[in-house]
Trafficking protein particle complex subunit 6B
Amino acid sequence: MADEALFLLLHNEMVAGLYRAAEQGEGENGRCTTKLESMGFRVGQGLIERFTKDTARFKDELDIMKFICKDFWTTVFKKQIDNLRTNHQGIYVLQDNKFRLLTQMSAGKQYLEHAPKYLAFTCGLIRGGLSNLGIKSIVTAEVSSMPACKYVVV
């Protein structure tokens, strides 16, 4: 439980610190999102390396996505992805109805515009994990109502 609180605090401070620096003229908002995504990418690579060292090879892309949704997500966020959808042509949608990094924010619509900056790290986390498993991808996040979010993997 303490490690979860530390992760949430660290994540919030990373986001706040980068955007605070951007407001003071040391960068721009687009670069903040890129930096967060890059940090997440590197962390995702390292975590997947650690989590899969004793597992058998995956059969296909769908098995890899199932691993991300079940084992990887459970280890990082203490719960599985609520829904995984695919069109069987390389596009996957991972839906988390109560995403941990957004539950601290109010469910009101006034915070909806700030949600994407809190999802950039996780986009990188997913992309980095998939990269280490041999899948080149683009990961984007969508939020229509708090604290639910969708990650689209192309």
Notes: Residues 37-153 form a domain with the Muramoyl-pentapeptide Carboxypeptidase; domain 2 fold (CATH 3.30.1380.20). The first helix runs from residue 2 to 23. The chain is about 50% helix and 10% strand. The first strand starts at residue 83 and ends at 86.
